[in-house]
Amino acid sequence: MPERIRLVLVEDNQVFREALELLLGLRDDIEVVASVDTGNAAAAIVGDVQPDVVLMDYRLPGMNGVEATRAIHEAHPEAAVVCLTASVSAKEVQELFEAGAVACLTKDEQLEEIIAAIRSAAGQEAST
Q1: How far apart are alpha carbons 41 and 24 in whole angstroms?
Q2: Contacts of 87 (CB under 8 A, 6+ apart)
Q3: Which of 29, 36, 92, 98 has the CB geometry, 3.0–4.6 Å to 88, for a possible disulfide?
Q4: DSSP secondary structure string, the chain?
């Protein structure tokens, strides 16, 4: 069995963050190593917890998802950033990819699609 994917969850909506953390924590192949509510906290913690993947909201207080993605990508290029947001424009998606994100999904995606994107970002094949 491959190593567990180390994940940092970045979401300012506490209820959504806790629900997603719970659902992802039930997976054998994913370990949520940190869960934070701001882009600033995400950029600061990545060096400490060394995740494989950062699941990043776009709209965050303070440093937004693009700024946090750029900071993480520059300081820790080994951490893949997957954006997960309620809504995002084509321009915002382009900004995310330019900042270093490897995928961008909306929060209305099925959980399996989100997990597939996390696995892909971590370089692991989908497993059942």
Answers
A1: 20
A2: 106
A3: 92
A4: -PPPEEEEEE-S-HHHHHHHHHHHHT-TTEEEEEEESSHHHHHHHHHHH--SEEEE-SS-SSS-HHHHHHHHHHH-TTSEEEEEES---HHHHHHHHHHTEEEEEETTS-HHHHHHHHHHHTT-----
- The length of the chain is 128
CA distance 116 to 122: 10
Pair 63, 38: CB distance under 8 Å: yes
- Please give the structure tokens belonging to residue 12: 């300012």
Q: What is the pTM of this model?
A: 0.92
Report residue 17 as tokens. Answer: 């963050």
Name the amino acid, one letter, at 35. S
pLDDT of residue 86: 84
Q: What is the pLDDT of residues 98-125, one digit of tens each?
A: 999 999 999 889 999 999 999 999 996 5
